Each structure stands twice: as C-alpha cells, then as structure tokens.
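Risk mitigation, structural track. In case the binding assays with inosine-5'-diphosphate fail to produce interpretable data, a predicted complex structure has been prepared as a fallback.
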Amino acid sequence: MERTLVLVKPDGVRRNLVGEVIARIERKGYFVTNIRMLQADRALLEQHYAEHIGKPFYEPLVEFMLSGPIVALIAEGNRVIEGFRSLAGATDPTVAAPGTIRGDLARDQGTKVVQNIVHGSDSVESAEREISLFFGGK
Ligand code: IDP
Ligand code: MG
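Fallback model:
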C-alpha cells in the first residue's frame, strides 16, 4: 500500500484545523495509520526541507515551522501521494482551487513564507524519507 507523510503546519494547529484536515483525508477514503504531535527542531526541518536550502523563503519557512507544534501523520491508500496533494491544492493559497484544503482554509497573510496549512510528500522516495524522519523508519 502506498504511504505519504502529511504535516499539519503550525498555522493549521493554531487555527484548530487538525480535525478538519484528518476528516478530509478520511472522507476521501485514505487510512490514517500513524499520528503524532510534536514541536519540530531545526535539525529535523533542515533534513525535511533540504531541497529548499538556499531559496529566499527557506529561512522564513524554517522559522514558521518552528513557531508552534505540528501534527505529523501517515496516510495510506492507492495513489495517496498524488491524491493528498490534490486534496491539499496548490502551494499558493490565493490561487489554490476552492474545495481544496489550501483553497478553502488559507490565504496570503503578507508573510515571507506562504502559510498553507499542510505539507504532503511529492514522490514515493520523498514519502519514505520523510516518514523515516518523523516516525523513525516505521
Ligand atoms: P509544497 O508544500 O506545495 O510541496 P514546496 O515547493 O515544497 O511546496 O515548498 C515548501 C513550502 O515552502 C510551501 O508549502 C510553502 O509553505 C513555502 N513556499 C514555497 N514556495 C514559496 C514561495 O515562492 N514563497 C514563499 N513561500 C514558499
Ligand atoms: Mg514540497
């Protein structure tokens, strides 16, 4: 069964949207098979967002992800990686389609980093790498 790593980012936790995100995953028919709330540290985020090191939004992104607790979960199902990214919507919430998590629940806050409620892995390789980071290889 395919797996993906979903994060509810600090904006989603602060706004009490953890249940909303989980409900959308479950209503779509995917299974939540592991979940934890944590306060990330810089070392974890540097590994998680390694592909973005050096980009102008990298440091604001790390600061944002350090700004409060996050929820990490594993969702499972056929084509769940693609399916969750479809549920999440486009990175920029201003243009994310209505009906998606980002399109319905987020907007531009004028910050250096886009605050867009959720993260979802973008490939099988990144999903397995990210699941190992947040769940220790389980
Ligand atoms: P994704 O979360 O849709 O996969 P990525 O390109 O992997 O998007 O970027 C990781 C995160 O960095 C985004 O979710 C968003 O919070 C932030 N981000 C990405 N691109 C920009 C940008 O151009 N400006 C500000 N923040 C950005
Ligand atoms: Mg990404």
